[in-house]
Amino acid sequence: ELVERARHDVRDLEPSESTLELEVHVAREGGEEARETWLLVQRMDGGRAKQFCADPKLEVHGMQPVPWGGIAARLGGGAVAGRPYCLLPLPVETGLPVHANGFFELSSNRRDIWFGDDMLGAGKLRSEWNTCLLHEVVAPAYVQLLVLARRLALGAGARAYYALWPQRRPAEPWGGAVGATYRLLLGQPVV
Prior knowledge:
The protein is α+β, with helices and mostly antiparallel strands.
């Protein structure tokens, strides 16, 4: 409902965040079943992302961005090969140890999010939107996930907790999201 309201009039949008811890039953090869615990943090945010959504140029180019995104991490089971999601998974990896979901603008072949610093017009707007969404919505969700995971992972040990952190700077635009995440982590109770 919140996403639907935001698609119609983002001006009245109030920032919100939700957190969910899920136990998932996974069928493995050979018929055995495993249990995994996942932590999800999603945000509907204001700020620069909300201002971007109100830009009249977006409608001219057929864009209807919504400042919503989130992070999902498997707890205690080792890092995952992070993938981007735009409601459904995209067939590429982000280079992060978590999954990132958001209302991204997708590339024309729908295999990745739109990104490039050498574009004009609609392509430039799509790329700028994805960067804004990653920095202003997804990165704060990642920080909140790390803060919460620290509390939840106390029994699992430091190795499991730090496996959720970016270990290296991935290719853009995900590298910029890692930089934004680390800047936001300063002063947070995460170590």
